[in-house]
């Protein structure tokens, strides 16, 4: 959930809650599929439960907000896989099948679809969970109904025709949750501040400035970690990082001499965040330059320093991607169709088009 708790005070649930929830829904899904005659061995069930329990273990502090800030160019999926491979060594190769399924290398295609697809148990859990803890009712999906409607045809996951309205509700809920929660402008602005805190701290560390931080965080501040040097030692240190490392470091960094790092941290700790404006059109350079100039003149700082506080970007929301594996509906006559083609809701077609919004962030004007 990143910094969503700044907008929704109830959103303090953790990724551990989510991992356990996914495991529970996976078990329910396998019960339903077995009842409908789909053969799943005990060994396969165990591997699926391991794979879904560990699917997000590679996330660092504050989730997606800092995915590419602490390490460079390594996705959380890649780190999750490294954790699983390390555990496989420690547990006498007992995770081999789970890893095959996680990587999509197992011959039963629907296993991977249960873990990662456009209608997987991951999404069935986080939409309902995040909706509950934020209080955003629009995201409340009927995951139990959707699971009951699952089936397998030609080794692919399908939803029985009776469940089409639940699928429509699921896709609409996903779109609304992205605009109202995951891409909410306040949490978006706070996440961008957090990214810039780490960027500045890394820059200062590279110039020889000693910053107070936990041993684990210091390791990543003082070393450029990428895919090619992400060793077993790095993995061990990464596993010790969590949100507390970042928050406690920021509370210390409020007092450093550097204008940029001190003020970025103060903004997050004091919840005195940047002003964020969302637009349908790209923000003009002229507008950005105006805010930069005002900041440079007010604090007598360089343009490079001011750029930490004034910046633009864009966000996209795509509820259903027709270029990926479709959500297929199984009709009573055995025919299989893409949900977007058989839905009687006009808005499902609209949900398959990406909506892009542009934003500008800058400090609030104070007297």
Protein model, in words:
With 367 residues, the protein is of the alpha+beta class. The chain folds into two domains: 12-182, Hypothetical protein af1432; 185-315, Growth Hormone, Chain: A (Up-down Bundle). The chain is 51% helix and 10% strand. It has 17 helices and seven strands. It has helices at 15-35, 42-53, 76-90, 96-102, 109-115, 121-134, 143-148, 164-182, 185-206, 215-222, 232-238, 243-253, 259-269, 285-299, 303-306, 339-342, 347-351, and strands at residues 150-153, 156-160, 275-279, 311-317, 328-330, 336-338, 355-362. The strands form two sheets. A four-stranded mixed β-sheet has the order 1-2-5-6. A three-stranded antiparallel β-sheet has the order 3-7-4, with helices on both faces. Strand 5 (328-330) and strand 6 form a beta hairpin. Helix 1 packs across helix 6. The radius of gyration is 23 Å and the shape is globular. It starts with 14 loop residues before the first helix and ends in a 5-residue tail after the last strand.
Architecture blueprint of SSEs:
Elements lengths: L14 H21 L6 H12 L22 H15 L5 H7 L6 H7 L5 H14 L8 H6 L1 E4 L2 E5 L3 H19 L2 H22 L8 H8 L9 H7 L4 H11 L5 H11 L5 E5 L5 H15 L3 H4 L4 E7 L10 E3 L5 E3 H4 L4 H5 L3 E8 L5
Helix pairs in contact: 1-2, 1-6, 2-4, 6-8, 9-13, 12-13
Biggest sheet record? 4 strands, mixed
Distance between the first and last residues' Cα:
34 Å
Please identify which CATH superfamily of the largest domain we are dealing with: Hypothetical protein af1432
- Gross morphology: globular
Tally of DSSP helical segments:
17
Order of helices and strands: HHHHHHHEEHHHHHHEHHEEEHHE
**Taking Cα atoms only, what radius of gyration do you get, to the nearest Å?**
23 Å
The third-level CATH topology of the largest domain is Hypothetical protein af1432
Residue-averaged pLDDT: 94
Total discrete domains: 2
CATH architecture of the largest domain: Orthogonal Bundle
How many β strands by DSSP? Answer: 7
- Strand coverage percent: 5-15%
